[in-house]
Design brief:
Elements (H helix, E strand, L loop, with lengths): L1 E4 L5 H15 L6 H8 L5 H10 L1 E7 L2 E9 L3 E7 L8 H15 L4 E7 L3 H6 L3 E10 L2 E11 L2
Parallel strand pairs: 4-5
Antiparallel strand pairs: 1-2, 2-3, 3-4, 5-7, 6-7
Helix pairs in contact: 1-2
Length: about 150
């Protein structure tokens, strides 16, 4: 596995991975209306261009295929962390997270924060995050439960 900084050329694959992962990996935690609203975010090209231009973005590649990606916004907020449906439970999220945490530490951040799905919450808890609060975010008029989580960095 190779972890590297993302380039604009990775965007199409990132958007497809995002949509596919939400559709298949999150289906036990969200209903079909919620999944459809959430994955529609892949269509917002302007948002994805902002991510690649303004966030610290890494991709994980396995044999040339994108296995996952993770983004760090403003040095201390994990905006996106997704692992391809065919690469679940292989340690890829942990490796990407470790890379991102090291970047935040280099930037002398004291806290890492994330708004985490029901699906991702157990992973973030394993990484040492604590839930601050449950919240409902609205996407295209559909409510999605997620969790504001934080981790203190040493």
């Amino acid at each position: 596995m190779i972890i590297r900084k993302a380039t604009p050329g990775d965007l199409a694959e990132m958007r497809t991975l995002f949509s596919d992962t939400v559709t298949s990996v999150c289906k036990n935690d969200y209903d079909s209306d919620q999944i459809n609203a959430w994955k529609s975010g892949a269509e917002n090209e302007e948002r994805w261009l902002r991510v690649i231009d303004h966030q610290f973005v890494i991709v994980a590649k396995v044999n040339g295929q994108m296995a996952g990606f993770c983004t760090l916004d403003q040095g201390n907020y994990i905006d996106l962390l997704f692992v391809h449906k065919d690469f679940q439970q292989q340690g890829i999220a942990r490796k990407m997270y470790t890379f991102i945490e090291q970047e935040a530490t280099v930037r002398k951040e004291k806290i890492l924060a994330a708004d985490v799905s029901k699906t991702a919450r157990p992973f973030f808890e394993k990484m040492g995050f604590k839930m601050i609060r449950e919240q409902t975010v609205e996407v295209k008029g559909i409510g999605l439960t997620n969790y504001k989580m934080e981790k203190e960095l040493n």
